[in-house]
Design brief:
Blueprint lengths: L1 H31 L6 H18 L4 H24 L6 H23 L13 E4 L2 E4 H23 L1 H11 L1 H6 L4 H23 L11 H14 L4 H21 L7 H13 L12
Antiparallel strand pairs: 1-2
Helix pairs in contact: 1-5, 1-8, 1-9, 1-10, 2-3, 2-4, 2-8, 2-9, 3-8, 5-6, 5-8, 6-8, 9-10, 9-11
Length: 287
């Protein structure tokens, strides 16, 4: 019974964190049609800014979190405006450029903070016991925050005028232009939202996992897997795939070994590409 509760609880927590990272990745792909290899760096920078503001500068948690997320969102918009925008349609250029940005930020973190991990004190100290399983308040907060922002993003895209304009650009850019939608503005806003969501994941995961310069690759690989499994450009598919991945990895960790948990997403990618290349809920993308 304890193992089952652990799998359900921890799987839900990691699934929610994966969702927060992956929906931003799939959003920028669905809207702008680009694969942003610097997406994982936004997660990393969020964690390091949380460490800087909370641990080094002793700023309170809410303000630190807000400053970290806003700072990363600004970086995302700047990368889009000054780097991606001039040659947006040249996808090979965008791939190389965003990878270069990710590696640049990695080396920057090495230079500023050193190679050793930096951890942040838990926002709320303590834990609860559920079905014999000890769960820290930090993990619960991370779960609720991740779920809340994923829901807010879905409502923003589906229910607001600005969100619908972003969705219109994703569906058909030419038709959106004829309707008077400023597509470059939609791209920048999407990049800012995407970067901000990754930063939120980094901020709230920083007390659970140490911030290290190479941590950007982990969420990037997982986001790739989730986008492929869920379907290119599908937010709903990304959420479903994130939860499936979270539960699967936790199940493998408990039943086999934690050493094999990271093989789950690789196997999932292979199976999906062979059996259902379009993913669970592929929406595709029209030019």
């Amino acid at each position: 019974m304890t193992a089952l509760v652990s799998i359900l609880v921890l799987g839900t927590i990691w699934g929610a964190v994966y969702s927060l990272i992956a929906v931003g990745f799939t959003l920028i792909f669905g809207v702008a049609g680009i694969i942003n290899l610097s997406h994982g760096a936004f997660y990393m920078i969020g964690a390091y800014l949380a460490y800087t503001f909370m641990t080094l500068l002793k700023i309170n948690v809410p303000l630190s979190a807000l400053m970290a997320v806003a700072g990363v969102a600004f970086i995302g918009v700047a990368i889009d405006y000054f780097g991606i925008r001039p040659l947006r349609e040249r996808h090979a250029y965008v791939l190389i450029l965003t990878l270069a940005f990710a590696l640049f930020f990695q080396e920057l973190m090495y230079g500023i903070y050193g190679p050793y991990g930096k951890s942040v004190q838990s926002f709320v100290v303590g834990e609860i016991v559920l079905g014999g399983v000890h769960i820290s308040y930090q993990k619960l907060i991370t779960l609720f925050v991740a779920a809340a922002f994923v829901i807010l993003l879905w409502l923003f895209i589906k229910k607001t005028k600005t969100g619908k304009s972003i969705s219109a650009v994703a569906q058909n850019k030419d038709a959106a232009i004829l309707m008077g939608i400023q597509y470059e503005k939609a791209y920048r806003m999407t990049m800012g939202i995407s970067a901000g969501l990754a930063a939120i994941a980094g901020v709230f995961i920083s007390p659970i996992l140490e911030a290290v310069p190479t941590m950007w690759s982990f969420p990037l690989f997982k986001a790739f897997a989730i986008v492929i499994i869920g379907g290119l450009g599908s937010l709903e598919g990304a959420i479903i795939a994130s939860l499936l991945l979270g539960y699967s990895e936790t199940l493998v960790s408990f039943l086999i070994s934690a050493n094999y948990a990271d093989m789950v997403y690789l196997i999932a990618i292979i199976l999906v590409l062979v059996l259902r290349p379009t993913g669970i809920l592929s929406k595709g993308r029209r030019a």
